[in-house]
C-alpha cells in the first residue's frame, strides 16, 4: 500500500521505531539513520545474538545507514538523503535537530513538501518540553496512571509501555493524514507529536464523568465495582475477565451455570453477592472456564500470560504471529496482518553502501572516503 514512500527515521527506543515499523510493514521504505556505534536501544541489557530484544522487536523491514551526525559532512549527507525522501521521523529533545542543521525549517527549504514528524514526551513547546522523561511520567501527568490503581488505591506501574505505543499509533495516523493532504495540496506538514497529548486525548470520557458527576474513575460500570464486570480467580489460582454488562450476556451466564436466581442481581454491588460469585468462580479451573466461554456467549475470557498467547487458538487463527527466526518481534502489528516478505531488523550500517550508491549516486571512491574518514560506517549483511 505504501510502496514508493521513503521514510528517513532518526528516532530511537520505542515510539518512533514502532511507528515506522508499522509503516514499513505496509510497504514503505524505512531507512534508519544511526550513529556509527548503532542506535542506543541496540545496547540494552537483554539481547539475542548481540542485539537488544527491544531493538529486534521494533525494527523489522527496515534498512540501516550509520552516519556521524556530529560532523558537517555527516549532516550534509543526511540532508542529501532527506531530499530524496517523503517523510522524516525524529525523537530527539527539542533543539537537537536544529543544532544538527536538520530541523524542519532547514529541511523544508530544500524539500518543501516534506512530512516531518517530531515525537517527544512533552511536545516541542511548553515549560516541560526540555525535560527528560519516560513512559511512566507521561502516564502520570495525563491522569491515566491515577486510573490504574491497586486495591489499596496506589497507582501501579504498567508492564506495557502504554504511552509509547499509543503515541506510535498517533504517529502513523498523523503521517498518513499528512500524506493524503499532500496528495491534494502538494504541501508538506510539520507534526509535533507529544506522547502526553496522545494520552490526554483518551481521557475525555473520564473527564466528562468527573466534571458532570464527580466520578474520579470514569464510567462506574467499568471500574470493577459491579459483579457483572470484574476479574475473578479460578480454582487453580488463575484469573478470568468477566464483562457481562448487557442483560442478555448476564442472563446467558446465569442460565448456563444453573444460577437463574442471580438474574435480577445483574448490576449488583452488594459485598455479600460479590463474595458469593467470587467463590463460585473458584469452583472451576481456568481451562474449564475457557472451554465454557467458547460455548456460552457471556463475555468471559481467560487472562493469559505472555507465554500463552502464541498458542491461544483464536489468536493463531488471526495470523498474529511470525515464525521466521530473526525477523524481530514474533508478534505482527495489528496494522499489518498477513505479512509477506518480512525482513529481519538490520545490522548497524548494513545498507550504508547500497543507500549511498543507489539513492544518492555516490561513487565507490567517495563512499570509501566517507568510510575511511568515519563519516559513515558500513555494516555486513547477514
Automatic annotation (TrEMBL):
PANTHER family: ALPHA-METHYLACYL-COA RACEMASE, SUCCINYL-COA--D-CITRAMALATE COA-TRANSFERASE. GO terms for molecular function: transferase activity. Keywords: Transferase. InterPro entries: CoA-transferase_III, CoA-Trfase_fam_III, CoA-Trfase_III_dom3_sf, CoA-Trfase_III_dom_1_sf. The keyword Transferase applies. It comes from Anaerobacillus isosaccharinicus. Pfam families: CoA_transf_3. This is CoA transferase. The keyword Chloroplast does not apply.
Amino acid at each position: 500500500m505504501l510502496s514508493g514512500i521513503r521514510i528517513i527515521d532518526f528516532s530511537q527506543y520505542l515510539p518512533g521505531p514502532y511507528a515506522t515499523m508499522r509503516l514499513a510493514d505496509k510497504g514503505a521504505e524505512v531507512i534508519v539513520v544511526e550513529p556509527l556505534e548503532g542506535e542506543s536501544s541496540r545496547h540494552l541489557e537483554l539481547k539475542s545474538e548481540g542485539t537488544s530484544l527491544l531493538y529486534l522487536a521494533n525494527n523489522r523491514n527496515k534498512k540501516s545507514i550509520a552516519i556521524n551526525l556530529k560532523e558537517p559532512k555527516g549532516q550534509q549527507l543526511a540532508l542529501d538523503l532527506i531530499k530524496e525522501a517523503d517523510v522524516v521521523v525524529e525523537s530527539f529533545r527539542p533543539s537537537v535537530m536544529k543544532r544538527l542543521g536538520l530541523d524542519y525549517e532547514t529541511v523544508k527549504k530544500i524539500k518543501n513538501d516534506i512530512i516531518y514528524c517530531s515525537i517527544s514526551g512533552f511536545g516541542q513547546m511548553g515549560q516541560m518540553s526540555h525535560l527528560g522523561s519516560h513512559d511512566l511520567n507521561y502516564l502520570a501527568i495525563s491522569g491515566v496512571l491515577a486510573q490504574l490503581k491497586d486495591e489499596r488505591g496506589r497507582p501501579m506501574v504498567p508492564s506495557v509501555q502504554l504511552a509509547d505505543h499509543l503515541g506510535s499509533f498517533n504517529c502513523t495516523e498523523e503521517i498518513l493524514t499528512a500524506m493524503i493532504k499532500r496528495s491534494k495540496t502538494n504541501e508538506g506538514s510539520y507534526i509535533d507529536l507529544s506522547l502526553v497529548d496522545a494520552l490526554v486525548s483518551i481521557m475525555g470520557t473520564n473527564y466528562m464523568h468527573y466534571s458532570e458527576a464527580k466520578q474520579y474513575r470514569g464510567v462506574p460500570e467499568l471500574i470493577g465495582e459491579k459483579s457483572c464486570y470484574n476479574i475473578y480467580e479460578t480454582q487453580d489460582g488463575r484469573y478470568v475477565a468477566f464483562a457481562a454488562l448487557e442483560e442478555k450476556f448476564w442472563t446467558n451466564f446465569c442460565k448456563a451455570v444453573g444460577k437463574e436466581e442471580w438474574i435480577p442481581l445483574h448490576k449488583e454491588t452488594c459485598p455479600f453477592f460479590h463474595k458469593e460469585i467470587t467463590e463460585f468462580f473458584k469452583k472451576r479451573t481456568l481451562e474449564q472456564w475457557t472451554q465454557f466461554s467458547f460455548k456460552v456467549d457471556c463475555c468471559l475470557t481467560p487472562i493469559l500470560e505472555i507465554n500463552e498467547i502464541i498458542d491461544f487458538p483464536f489468536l493463531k487463527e488471526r495470523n498474529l504471529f511470525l515464525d521466521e527466526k530473526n525477523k524481530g518481534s514474533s508478534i505482527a502489528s495489528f496494522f499489518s496482518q498477513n505479512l509477506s516478505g518480512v525482513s529481519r531488523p538490520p545490522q548497524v550500517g548494513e545498507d550504508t553502501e547500497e543507500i549511498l550508491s543507489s539513492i544518492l549516486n555516490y561513487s565507490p571512491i567517495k563512499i570509501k572516503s566517507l568510510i575511511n574518514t568515519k563519516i559513515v560506517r558500513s555494516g555486513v549483511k547477514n
